[in-house]
Q: What sequence folds into this?
């Protein structure tokens, strides 16, 4: 699977998308900001998968109606992510929720 849109430090997120993310306030947002600043303690809540495992990662999901996109913002540079089956379902549900919030036509969901 690939994402049609992504960014890097040389091409930051648009101000509109950033505002969507900044409007969320919670402990997760505090964790997100401390990971971004490099001050968060590395945690391995479900153990370490191997030498390349950098620990837990906080991310934000938002939708931009005007651009018709759902975006995920990670707190730090990320090469890969892994999750247990329940976490994968929760991520899928969050993405579907945001997709529905901006969809201009009915969406079809197929679960195998």
A:
């Amino acid at each position: 699977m690939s994402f049609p849109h992504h960014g890097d430090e040389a091409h930051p997120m648009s101000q509109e998308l950033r505002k969507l993310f900044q409007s969320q306030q919670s402990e997760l947002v505090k964790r997100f900001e401390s990971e971004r600043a490099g001050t968060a303690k590395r945690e391995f809540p479900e153990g370490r998968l191997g030498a390349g495992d950098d620990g837990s990662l906080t991310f934000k999901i938002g939708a931009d109606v005007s651009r018709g996109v759902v975006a995920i913002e990670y707190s730090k540079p990320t090469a890969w992510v892994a999750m247990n089956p329940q976490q994968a379902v929760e991520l899928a549900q969050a993405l579907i929720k945001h997709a529905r919030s901006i969809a201009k036509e009915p969406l079809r969901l197929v679960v195998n």
Summary: The longest helix spans residues 85-102. Residues 15-102 form one domain.
